[in-house]
Design brief:
The protein is of the alpha/beta class. It has a single domain, classed as Protein tyrosine phosphatase superfamily (Protein-Tyrosine Phosphatase, Chain A, Alpha-Beta Complex), CATH 3.90.190. The chain is about 35% helix and about 10% strand. The chain has a 5-stranded mixed sheet with strand order 1-2-5-3-4, covered by helices on one side. A hairpin with a 3-residue loop joins strand 1 and strand 2.
């Protein structure tokens, strides 16, 4: 990803249109120094996020009281939990914007794993920037009943590296639109501010006319569970 700031007049237009908080989600692109080797508690006593360097030593993970591990980058590395009592799920999320229709079902599996517990869980991907952040924010929206704006603001305040790719952002925006169909907290049009956004970024595949309703179907599992919390 580019680290070049966009032209001042362009950023100025975004600030007028979206406000400072929403612009800060996309611009400027964060400093990623040390992201892979940093573990961050996102939802107290429930969710942690890290890059792959952390899971090279599972004693570090266990010392934080973590009991479950969700690896979102199973095609790139595996987590060795042998000799531990850690519950492990490894899923092949791709961070290149090509997941298409496979993204939402895979996200459903990830959220179900986290709902079933036990918690706290560590959600890990290569850098702890895009895939693990996306799953964590989706959990915060679906299980913790937060808006996308609230969830990402909390994520960014605790993990400044957070920067999901365009495909993941649009998926999160669609979940937000399902929860708040009349007033989503982050408009779909905000995707234009993403550092990787281009005319062929796939926005049209996610955005639909108002009369088409939410793009998530009941078969995705996410809509039915949208307002359900884990059993106490």
């Amino acid at each position: 990803m580019s680290t070049v700031r966009r032209p001042a007049d362009q950023v100025g237009r975004w600030l007028r249109e979206y406000g400072e908080e929403l612009v800060s989600f996309f611009e400027p692109y964060p400093d990623m120094t040390g992201c892979s080797g940093t573990m961050t508690e996102i939802v107290p006593e429930k969710l942690f996020v890290s890059g792959r360097d952390i899971v090279a030593d599972m004693t570090v993970v266990q010392r934080r009281g973590i009991v479950s591990v969700l690896n979102c980058a199973s095609k790139e590395f595996s987590c060795d939990t042998a000799g531990t009592r850690l519950r492990l799920l490894e899923l092949p999320f791709e961070d290149d914007g090509t997941m298409g229709l496979t993204l939402r079902p895979l996200l459903d599996v990830a959220i179900s794993f986290l709902r079933e517990g036990p918690l706290p869980a560590l959600i890990v991907c290569s850098a702890g920037v895009s895939r693990s952040v996306t799953v964590s924010v989706a959990y915060m929206m679906i299980i913790e009943m937060m808006s996308l704006r609230e969830a990402f603001k909390m994520m960014r305040s605790r993990r400044p590296f957070a920067y999901p790719n365009t495909e993941f952002w649009m998926c999160l925006m669609e979940i937000d639109r399902c929860i708040r169909p009349t007033r989503p907290s982050v408009p779909m049009s905000c995707i234009e501010m993403h550092v990787d956004c281009s005319e062929d970024a796939g926005v049209d595949e996610w955005m639909s006319d108002d009369d088409q309703g939410c793009a998530f179907s009941a078969s995705d599992g996410l809509v039915d569970d949208m307002y359900s919390k884990p059993d106490e």
